[in-house]
Design a protein that fits this description.
Elements (H helix, E strand, L loop, with lengths): L1 E4 L5 H14 L7 H9 L5 H7 L3 E5 L5 E8 L4 E7 L8 H10 L8 E6 L3 H6 L3 E9 L5 E9 L2
């Protein structure tokens, strides 16, 4: 496994993996009427900015195939996204990505994130603590049930 900084040229490829993850992984915790608009939504405008600022880590195999990626928003000290190819779960890819995202964080502030319901246990294993359940106002128009979490470095 190798890592590189994602660029704005990667947005379409990364978003395709994200869409696949929403359809295949998140569907265990969300009904079809939420998955459909969520998975059909385009990349948010902030992705180009975050990737342009170097806030994306891409994991690839030795042949350059995408294994997963994470996006960190340094202004908010927030893990914005973390997705792993559904066929490659449980292999330490997510944990390795998280370590690299946390290395971007400001250690004087807590790191925050909004976890999809299917990802809460993963984030807890990474040292995050649940603050509250919330409805995340997704740009697709659906209110996604999620859990606001934090972690001290």
């Amino acid at each position: 496994m190798q890592f590189r900084t994602g660029t704005t040229d990667d947005v379409a490829t990364l978003w395709a993996l994200r869409t696949r993850c929403v359809r295949e992984t998140c569907s265990s915790h969300y009904p079809p009427e939420v998955i459909a608009p969520w998975s059909a939504s385009p990349p948010p405008s902030q992705y180009a900015r975050l990737l342009g600022q170097g806030g994306c880590v891409v994991a690839e195999d030795a042949q350059g195939a995408l294994l997963g990626f994470g996006v960190f928003d340094s202004d908010a000290n927030e893990v914005d996204a973390l997705f792993v190819d559904p066929d490659r779960g449980g292999q330490g890819i997510g944990q390795a990505l998280m370590q690299r995202l946390l290395a971007m964080a400001d250690p004087s502030r807590e790191v925050v994130l909004s976890a999809s319901l299917n990802a809460v246990a993963f984030y807890q294993r990474q040292g995050f603590v649940a603050d509250r359940e919330e409805l995340y106002p997704h740009p697709s128009g659906v209110a996604l049930a999620s859990v606001r979490m934090h972690r001290q470095l």
